[in-house]
Amino acid sequence: MPRGTAASGHGGDCRRGSPEPKQLEREAERFRTWTGRTRQPRANWGACYPHWDRICAALERTLADGCLSPPEADTVLELMVHDRQRERIIERVGAHPMLAFQIATRGAGHVRAEVRWSVMPLLGRLGSLGAVEILHQLCHDPEPAIRRRARSTLATIDPGFDAADDLGLRTDLLEGELPTD
Fold first, then answer.
1. Is the separation of the CB atoms in 157 and 151 below 8 Å?
2. Alpha-carbon dihedral angle through residues 171, 176, 178, 181, given to the nearest 10 degrees
3. Which helix (H) or strand (E) holds 31?
4. For the residues of 92-108, what is the DSSP string, one character each?
């Protein structure tokens, strides 16, 4: 989708009003440069980045525009992966439900498991019918950790959710126990 069109699926015009529409990408590039130079012994070393405040400020300005291009959404997803412990990115994106849903939808279909993993707290915050539908789909993900997290997230936002029923386990068990005339 070319820049200047709505990536949110609403078909509206998405013109950039900010004077520096690429500031988020510049901050993300600074983060990428830092990650290339930094070797942290901990698993979540991205949380040690000293300039998350700059990233968050650039993100807030980008979100204030009310729309994201697909490359911007991908940048947000990348940053979410590295910020999964503190969830600063999710907190800011979650304040914009339409954009949050766009980002979560894009992330839920991502090829990288860590991206799919990272969008689940955002889906949980949204709690909308669309978010619940995406979480139900993620209950069938090829990665077991993704399936478990999707079920866990669903259990917190959907009181009618039954993990066994959603995965077809109950149906499979019943079919084996019922007579087949």
1. no
2. 120
3. helix 23-37
4. HHHTSHHHHHHHHHHHH
Element (DSSP H or E) covering residue 73 = helix 70-82
What is the distance between the alpha carbons of residues 52 and 138, in angstroms, rounded to a whole number?
Answer: 29
Mean pLDDT of 166-179: 42
Q: How far is 146 from 115, CA to CA, in rounded Å?
A: 10
Q: CA–CA separation, 150 vs 72, rounded Å?
A: 25
Q: What do you get for the CA distance between the two ends of the chain, in Å?
A: 55
The CA distance from 27 to 33, in Å, is: 10
Phi/psi of residue 111, each to 5°? -70, -30
Q: How confident is the model at residue 49 (pLDDT cuts 50, 70, 90)?
A: confident
Cα 43 → chain centroid:
20
∠ CA 24-94-98, rounded to 5°: 85
Q: Angle CA(14)–CA(60)–CA(130) in degrees, nearest 5?
A: 65
The Cα–Cα gap between 119 and 114 comes to 9
